[in-house]
Amino acid sequence: MENKRLDEIISNENSRLEDIGYGGLPSCGNFLVMDASVLESMYAVDGLEVIPIFDAIEKYPRVREKLYFNLVDKNKSEYTRLASEAKPVGYYIRVEPGIKIDEPVQAAFMLGSTGSTQVIHNIIDLGQGSTLNILNGCTTSCQVFQGRHIGITEVYIAEGASLSYTMLHNWGENIEVYPVTGIRVDKDARFVSNYAAMTSVKKLVAYPTAWVEAGGSARFHSIIYSKNNSFFDMGARAVLEGEDSGAEIISRVVSEAGIVISRQMIEGKRPGCKGHMECSGLLLDENAVIHTIPELKGSHPDINLSHEAAVGRISSKELSYLMSRGLTEEEARSLIIRGFLDIGIEGIPPRIHDIIEDTIKKSVKGSV
Questions:
Q1: Is the domain of 70 the same as that of 203?
Q2: Distance between CA atoms of 207 and 237, rounded to whole angstroms?
Q3: Do 14 and 34 share a domain, yes or no?
Q4: Are residues 199 and 101 part of one domain?
Q5: Termini Cα distance of the chain
Q6: 69 with 86, same domain?
Q7: Cβ contact 52:39 at 8 Å
Q8: Cβ atoms within 10 A of the Cβ of 260, count?
Q9: Same domain flag for 258 and 366
Q10: 3-state class of 367 per DSSP?
Q11: Among residues 291, 315, 339, which one ends one of the domains?
């Protein structure tokens, strides 16, 4: 019965799932949630486990006692308190030490009921020296016009392990979204976050924090296209707690007719810490707003932290040049915006990179 329901949902919502990359490439595991129901949970590689978080809490005392609401304070906000009081729905992904996996785990979370609140809690647990890619997507059913999504994510990356985490959001103009994320990056470990939000949303507030140990690194890359009076309060924070740890926070923001607040924070605490942040914004309309808030905090003299920020408009010279080469104004504007949004993301599988590029092309073409 559950398989029949899954087939029906995938058939009815195929275009929505495709837009967030679900089912679009070979994978080592899949996880699909509609509202509070887990519709698919599977994995096909030795040393990998992808199971519902509720089952993991029951099965593993370590998850219950050491990982669940450890990096995220359950009293941090009304949203974390709500999540702590609800039955946990989401995934627990575990990779055993030394296991290196190229094909990604694909996960999708769909809001299927108008006016409802979806509460998700995910935990990612990478063993020492392991490697994993995750393609995570969030969207709404074709029939949903209003709702709220709350997502708690706790990420544990053991010594020498590496995680590439790609998130694609495809919400709607009356949806509110409140993700809360904590990441622990152990010694010589690596975390790369790639985030793309290219569709309208009523309100999206996110400020993930990574704590990075000696020799480890955390990189946050985000691409935001704000449309139709959307409101984004986005950013990332990296706390460099170990010697020779590093962080990079890079964002590209295009505001067509919405408000975007871009917050970035890097704190260096130990010798040899290096961090760089960069926020570039492109305004397409006189009613659009981009507000960048870069912060650097140093508490040791032997660190190197830097930031860049710029907000502007499409260059008339670039536009004129492209039109002189035979492009229409719309084609020229689209090409400029697509080039602006190309961060040059490294360290992700080519197929995931292609999905991100396709998302950008579709969003820009549909709005310019």
A1: yes
A2: 7
A3: yes
A4: yes
A5: 44
A6: yes
A7: no
A8: 27
A9: no
A10: coil
A11: 315
Q: What is the DSSP string of 168-227?
A: EEE--TTEEEEEEEEEEE-TT-EEEEEEEE-S--SEEE---EEEE-TT-EEEEEEEEEE-
pLDDT tens digits for range 305-360: 999 988 888 878 877 877 887 878 777 777 777 777 776 666 555 666 666 677 66
Say whether both 282 and 368 belong to one domain.
Answer: no
Regarding whether 300 and 283 lie in a shared domain, the answer is yes
Q: Which one, of 233, 222, 171, 179, lies nearest residue 201 by Cα?
A: 171
Instruction: Look at residues 315, 334, 357 and tell me which one is the last residue of a structural domain.
Output: 315
* Structure tokens given for 2: 């559950």
Measured CA to CA, the distance from residue 2 to residue 10 in angstroms comes to 12
Give every CB contact of residue 1 below 8 A, 6+ residues apart in sequence: none
Q: C-alpha dihedral over 13, 15, 20, 26, to 10 degrees?
A: 90
Please, which residues have CB within 8 angstroms of residue 351's CB and are 6 or more apart in sequence? 24, 25, 26
Q: Report how far apart, in Å, the C-alpha atoms of 152 and of each of 20, 43, 71, 74, 192 are.
A: 19, 22, 10, 10, 18
Q: Collapsing DSSP states into helix, strand and coil, what is residue 67?
A: helix
Residues 191, 53 within the same domain: yes
Provide the domain limits for residue 362. Answer: 316-368
Q: What is the pTM for the complete model shown?
A: 0.90
* Residue 335 C-beta-side C-alpha neighbours within 13 Å: 15
Residue with tokens 């507030």: 205
Burial of 78 (0-12, 13-18, 19+ CB in 10 A): exposed
Q: For residue range 18-69, list pLDDT tens digits in order.
A: 888 888 778 999 999 999 999 999 999 999 999 999 999 999 999 999 999 9
Integer Cα distance of 179 and 119 in angstroms: 10
Number of folded domains that form the chain: 2
Residue in the block written with tokens 């508490």: 299
Residue 322 and residue 332: Cα distance in Å, rounded? 6
Contact in structure between 361 and 171 (CB atoms under 8 Å): no
Q: For residue 251, which of 290, 303, 200, 301 has the smallest C-alpha distance?
A: 290
